Amino acid sequence: MGLDVKEKNLLKFLGKHILPPCVILPYVQKTYFVGKPLELVGFLYVCYLLYKIVFYPLYFKLKIATWGRVNIRSYGKYAVVTGGTSGIGEAFVHTFGRKGLNVIVVSRSQDKLDRVKKEFEEKYDGLKCEVLAYDFNQTDKKVLSAFQEDFKKLVEKVGGIGVLVNNVGMSNDDPQYLHLIDQGLIDSMLNVNNGGTMMMSRLCLPFMMKQRKGAVICVSSASCTHPTPLLSCYSATKGFGNQLTRSMFYEYKEFGIDCLSITPYYFVSNMFKRRRETRMAPFPERNKARAEAKAAMKAGKKE
């Protein structure tokens, strides 16, 4: 039997915080610093600064580039993608296909779901693309309950979930003062951006806890990382998903579940009605949009 997550975390803590002083202090006692406590403190502080400023950033970059890459298939055989019929969501679907994962795509348009399913299964031999049509903006409790039951049955049928990508989202079409935005649109943003992320996380986490592994990726927005005038409501809803996912990272890591929030800037998509690529709004083509999905998966186990 291998070590469980808590035992691994304990060993990491001992190796990072306890072992170095135990190794260094006996050596220091036999050197220049014997009987010079203030100079010893200064020396250790300089070493700490060098570690934080020079060595740790280099180590982190090397870890992300090489050792830190996670085999996405180690989480499970299926990935769930919400809003996976366009933009970054569809890019995730095809990236998972190239990595050898089956997918479950949840979106509101059955026609688009059928197109994605056909393209996926034709392109990636031996892999399956399951689809569920659901509008995250609807508020009918019966429809909600029916979808949740259908989703649970599908997950049990395929044998569990490895990865969840909370990608579905919406925004106001044009930048606008908060008090001028239609209340119905505000309610829709809250339902889709917040309610959808919360519901899908709550649906998938029990399956991941049962298998003691899994990953949750939230496609948030850079607009939530700084003040964004005229997109106040949208940026606030994206801040919800970002904070939820970052908190889940610590809440569920003992169960072997990794949680990652990514905060991209604008890109060409149905949401922002852009039709031309610019440096500030890239990804007009599906193969370029995959770069954002790849960046998330290469980040590995960092929150």
UniProtKB/TrEMBL annotation:
One function term, GO molecular function aspect: oxidoreductase activity
Coiled coil spans: none
Pfam family, one: adh_short
Disordered, as annotated region: 282-303
Bias (Basic and acidic residues) ranges: 285-303
Keyword set, alphabetical order: Membrane, Oxidoreductase, Transmembrane, Transmembrane helix
Keyword set includes DNA damage: no
Classification via InterPro entries: NAD(P)-bd_dom_sf, SDR_fam, VLCFA-Steroid_DH
Organism superkingdom: Eukaryota
Bilayer-crossing regions: 40-59
Gene3D superfamilies: NAD(P)-binding Rossmann-like Domain (3.40.50.720)
Family of the protein in this entry: Belongs to the short-chain dehydrogenases/reductases (SDR) family.
Protein name as catalogued: Uncharacterized protein
Source organism: Triparma retinervis
